[in-house]
Design brief:
This protein has about 350 residues and is an alpha/beta fold. The chain has 13 helices and 11 strands. Strand 7, helix 7 and strand 8 form a beta-alpha-beta unit. The longest helix has 26 residues. The radius of gyration is 21 Å and the shape is globular.
């Protein structure tokens, strides 16, 4: 990477902000030396943290003491959030002075404010949250993960095309397979709007590699490159997977410390076990993308640490490097379907 990438960071968003934001930026700078940061937040708090990480030479601090609370309703955030750390960070992307935004703040507020300020692309009714999903064979992409609780068939079809573009442009999959999350694989199962979306996608088989319905237990097997769901089902699936990862690693830790012989066995298998923990670590997959907007916005998990936030920054960097917005617009403009 040679070109300078300028990232706009909501430094006050998240459970452990602003320290994890600054520390995460410092970690990502090691991996991507050509990053420039604009930190939005309380300068008195930020300046010592940034100085401590030696980031001041390639960083700006834009002062504001206004913060969007984690429990703030999106409607209230829209009314009073213009001068908040989140609102000002979004504005920098809207103005074209920053390449992408990263925030660990309130998800609902972030979606509402980015949708209002960055605006959906032509041809997209509702933006969706997409993220990587670990599988046995690698990674899949899943959307929507919480932006749209109530969806109709048209929304799901648009998500499918956006997910296809994400998998193609960012994940490098030439012809990604697309599946709809459902309670069964049979055509007659599921809610009406899901079955209707499936019929539309089948009719568009020359434009999209649609493979039908997928059940929740098939996701981790990597049986689809892109999984499409409404925001309610997608978010439940994501949180369930994160909880399962914590459960498995907790069981493993207890098993390996349950006896003297188990502890000896751990030392022999230490490298393999550490690799397992790394693969199961939710922080590795931190960083969800708001697809369908006229700008790059990445949502970090609110409770992540610096390592997780650095990975969210990495997602933003990839989106910029692959010129995702221009490429997605180009792909969307070529889709001819009547919904």
């Amino acid at each position: 990477m040679t070109d300078l990438i300028h990232l706009s960071l909501d430094a006050m968003g998240g459970d452990y902000a602003p320290k994890i934001v600054v520390d995460g930026a410092a970690q990502s700078k090691v991996r991507y030396p050509n990053l420039k940061f604009s930190f939005f937040g309380d300068k008195e708090i930020l300046l010592p943290l940034i100085n401590n990480q030696e980031l001041l030479n390639n960083s700006n601090i834009i002062h504001t003491t206004e913060i969007i609370d984690s429990n703030e309703k999106p409607s209230i955030a829209l009314r009073k959030g213009k001068n908040s750390s989140m609102g000002m960070a979004i504005q920098l992307v809207k103005s074209g002075k920053a390449d992408a935004l990263v925030s660990a703040g309130n998800t609902g507020a972030l979606m509402a404010m980015t949708k209002l300020m960055l605006r959906p692309m032509d041809g997209i009714t509702r933006p969706a949250i997409a993220a990587y999903f670990p599988t046995i064979v690698g990674e899949s992409c899943m959307l929507d993960l919480g932006a749209n609780i109530d969806c109709d068939s048209k929304n799901l079809v648009q998500f499918a095309f956006m997910g296809q573009a994400f998998a193609n442009i960012v994940m490098g999959i030439k012809d990604p397979t697309i599946s709809l999350l459902n309670i069964g694989e049979e055509e007659q199962k599921g809610l009406d709007y899901i079955k209707e979306a499936s019929k539309i996608l089948i009719s568009l088989k020359k434009k999209i590699n649609y493979n039908g319905f997928i059940e929740g237990d098939k996701i981790a097997k990597g049986m689809a490159d892109v999984i499409i769901a409404d925001g309610f089902s997608g978010n439940v699936s994501l949180k369930t997977a994160e909880g399962t990862a914590l459960l498995v690693t907790s069981y493993l830790k207890k098993a390996l410390s349950s006896s003297f012989s188990s502890k000896i066995g751990y030392w022999f298998a230490k490298k393999a076990i550490n690799n397992f923990r790394l693969q199961m670590d939710p922080r590795k997959y931190n960083g969800a993308v708001f697809l369908g907007l006229n700008g790059i916005a990445v949502k970090s998990h609110g409770g992540t640490d610096a390592y997780g936030f650095a990975n969210a920054i990495g997602v933003a960097v990839d989106m910029v490097r692959y010129d995702f917005i221009s490429n997605l617009k180009n792909k969307i403009s070529k889709i001819e379907y009547n919904l």
